[in-house]
Specification:
The protein is an alpha+beta fold. The chain contains three helices and eight strands, in the order H-H-E-E-E-H-E-E-E-E-E.
Amino acid sequence: MLRNFFTKDSGWKLFSLVLAVAIWVTVHRILTETGVPAPSDLGDTVTYGDLSVQVVSASADVHDFRVAPTTVKVTLSGPGEIMDKLQADKVHAVVDLTGFQLDGDMHCPVDVTAPPHVTVISVDPPKVAVIPPPPKR
């Protein structure tokens, strides 16, 4: 019975093993060629503890919308020569209200954009509460 477990459908099992190895090699090569940093290659780390959160939307007027908290703590990492010159005004924390529904979840994720070759390590808090404008009378 145990022998049957190993020998039954051995052709399919061998094919699956070869396919799994081919997929692993392909993904490994793609990640290596595109320069996705390994945890040990991240370089210097910088934290901005008081980065303002901006509210944007593709279609709606959002100037009356507010978020709480209004600032986030962002940790970034990258090559030392870039991180030494990096200034807070080159890093942007944004809440996109495109498609936001007032009757749904009142929290939205914070998206952080950074210059090229800089990796966003963490955003704290990752979501902020959206406060809609008061109803007009």
